[in-house]
Amino acid sequence: MSEERPAIRARGDQTWQERAACAVAIEVARDPDLFFPGTVADDERIRLAKGICSSCTVRATCLEAALECRDAVGVRGGLTEAERRAVRHSFTLRCDPDRVAAALAGRDVHLTTPERQELIRWAAASNTSIPLLASVLKISEAHVKKLLRRERRSDVDGSAGTSSTGQAARQTAAA
Ligand code: SF4
Questions:
Q1: What span, in angstroms and rounded, lies between the C-alpha atoms of 31 and 29?
Q2: Cα of 89 to ligand 1 centre, how many Å?
Q3: Does the Cβ of 56 fall within 6 Å of ligand 1?
Q4: What percent of the chain is modeled with pLDDT above 70?
Q5: How far apart are CA 21 and CA 23, in angstroms?
Q6: Residue 59 CA, distance from chain mean position
Q7: Distance between terminal CA atoms of the chain?
Q8: Which of 54, 85, 101, 174 is the most exposed place for a label (fewest CB within 10 A)?
Q9: What are the respective helix, strand and coil percentages of the chain, to the nearest 5?
Q10: How many angstroms is it from 76 CA to the middle of ligand 1?
């Protein structure tokens, strides 16, 4: 059974690989290159690898990790290198309030640019501490202050407190 949605993964966390279906499949097939088709079209390997990925329980996490670290080699998460290139842009535009809330709660989450902007929007409308923001965004406190000033100067509609990130952050804090 495939994952419905990848668990929020901390940067560098590779524990999901313990459940990777490919590790066993490569051994069974006795083909170390099963997930690394050659540069020449290698349709049979790709078909087999994709079939294994389709029933892998960590498929979504695997794909997310490959896109996050720009892993350009082989079949990952059911997609070939070319297919991953095609979806990478939309991946970098995602904005998941649960991931932002997890970062605010102290998880080392690899936030996208829109998620970082959402975090600043939320923080500008709340009393989130500057050192915490600096730590989450991995920037200086001076830079955080500058971003907050800019956000507050912008046309804020006052919705940050009820934004999905705000709700997710409150739920995380209450958990
Ligand atoms: S999705 Fe495919 S490449 Fe990723 S861990 Fe599972 S079997 Fe391996």
A1: 5
A2: 21
A3: yes
A4: 84
A5: 6
A6: 13
A7: 28
A8: 174
A9: 60, 0, 40
A10: 6
